[in-house]
Design brief:
With 197 residues, this protein is mostly helical. The protein has 2 domains: 77 residues, Orthogonal Bundle (Rna Polymerase Sigma Factor, Chain: A); 105 residues, Arc Repressor Mutant, subunit A. The protein is built from 9 helices and no strands. Helix 1 runs antiparallel to helix 2, helix 1 crosses helix 3 and helix 5 packs across helix 8. The longest helix has 23 residues. The termini are far apart. One of its GO terms (biological process) is DNA-templated transcription initiation. This is RNA polymerase sigma factor.
Length: 197
């Protein structure tokens, strides 16, 4: 049984990483969360019933570990805590800007909606599996995904209030990226012969 258990743990690691990243919004924290969840699973492997849904069992362990860690910290990060590297724009390509906008919008979704969207859309989890994992009704799971999709769509087409901090930040970053690109294309220098950038 131990070999089968370890094989299943290894096989589910990529999906756990996606879920952890959706929950933590930080790559290093996500890796730590996955590692802690795997340690919890290994120490509790005797409680797993062979033949049941191993993926749902592991996702629940990861989610419970995340909630436990949040309770210990007693502070939830917000958009102001996103590292500057995620907010900077290295290129004026539309696809990169769209990905940045999507990352901002995903970070703003309520945790339960963000998690539901990632598990269903990116990982292909069924609504039934999501409901079992999160301990809610199937209708609630569907509703969370629907609301998350609808909110993301609204944000992605620019349906943000003018005083929204996210919008202000995204506009400032986009303006700065466009300014630098324009200067680089025009060959403007900073007086020492080196192009601005």
């Amino acid at each position: 049984m131990a070999d089968t258990f370890h094989t299943q743990v290894i096989a589910i690691l990529p999906k756990l990483r996606v879920q952890a990243l959706a929950l933590t919004r930080n790559r290093a924290a996500a890796e730590d969360l996955v590692q802690d969840a795997v340690c919890n699973a290994l120490s509790a492997r005797e409680s797993f019933v062979p033949g049941t849904n191993f993926g749902a069992w592991m996702h629940r362990i990861l989610r419970n570990r995340f909630i436990s860690d949040l309770r210990k910290q007693r502070n939830v990060t917000d958009i102001e805590d996103v590292p500057a590297s995620l907010l900077s724009t290295k290129s004026d390509h539309e696809d990169r800007l769209a990905v940045k906008d999507l990352a901002f919008a995903l970070a703003r979704l309520p945790e339960d909606q963000r998690e539901a969207l990632v598990l269903v859309v990116l990982q292909g989890m069924s609504y039934q599996e999501l409901a079992e994992l999160t301990g809610c009704a199937v209708g609630t799971a569907k509703s969370r995904v629907f609301r998350a999709r609808r909110q993301l769509e609204a944000w992605m087409v620019g349906d943000l209030p003018a005083d929204d901090k996210l919008r202000q930040r995204a506009v400032a970053l986009r303006d700065e990226a466009n300014r630098r690109t324009s200067l680089a294309r025009a060959g403007v220098s900073n007086g020492s012969g080196a192009a601005l950038g």
